[in-house]
């Protein structure tokens, strides 16, 4: 099983920055597509960004130009650099690992880390 542990969340003022990290315990990190999701109180979990095993990134429209996702396969870690944070970015952020083989997806999730943007 793949274990994911998020860190780096906290309280930040609007316009500030935060960097989230997701450390994995799996030994085949490089084969997974990785994603960051978030869930605010009363809302459904939504995709923030993802990155393929080849390093191709995709972002939700709401975070484009502000967030940057990256991965370090040597460290088995994925990052989410969040800049120009807004109050609406407040949510629990979850790390996701997805393995797709022959059209079948297997997902693994971290426990989440709280991000609060407030003045």
Would you kindly provide a written description of the structure presented here, covering whatever features stand out?
The protein has 119 residues and is mainly beta. 0% of the residues lie in helices and 54% in strands. Strands 2, 4, 5, 6, 9, 10 and 11 form a seven-stranded mixed β-sheet that branches. Strand 7 and strand 8 form a beta hairpin. The chain is globular and about 45 Å long. The chain starts with a strand and ends with a strand. The mean pLDDT is 94.
What fraction of the residues are assigned to beta strands by DSSP? over 45%
Weakly predicted, low-confidence segments: none
Largest sheet: 7 strands, mixed
Rg calc? 14 Å
Number of helical segments with 4 or more residues: 0
The counted number of beta strands is: 11
- Using the alpha-carbon principal axes, give the shape: globular
Judged by helices, strands and strand pairing, the structural class is mainly beta
Alpha-carbon distance between the two ends: 40 Å
Order of helices and strands: EEEEEEEEEEE
- What is the percent of helical residues? under 10%
Average of pLDDT: 94
Offer a concise description of the structure.
The protein is built from no helices and eleven strands. The chain has strands at about 5, 10, 20-25, 35-40, 45-50, 55-60, 65-70, 75-80, 90-100, 105-110, 115.
């Amino acid at each position: 099983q793949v274990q994911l542990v998020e860190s780096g969340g906290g309280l930040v003022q609007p316009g500030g920055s935060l960097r989230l990290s997701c450390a994995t315990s799996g030994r085949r990190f490089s084969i997974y597509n990785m994603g960051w999701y978030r869930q605010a109180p009363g809302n459904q979990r939504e995709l923030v960004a993802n990155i393929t095993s080849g390093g191709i990134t995709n972002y939700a429209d709401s975070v484009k130009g502000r967030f940057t996702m990256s991965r370090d396969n040597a460290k088995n870690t994925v990052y989410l650099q969040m800049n120009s944070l807004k109050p609406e970015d407040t949510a629990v952020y979850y790390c996701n690992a997805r393995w797709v083989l022959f059209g079948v997806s297997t997902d693994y999730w971290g426990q989440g880390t709280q991000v609060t943007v407030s003045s």
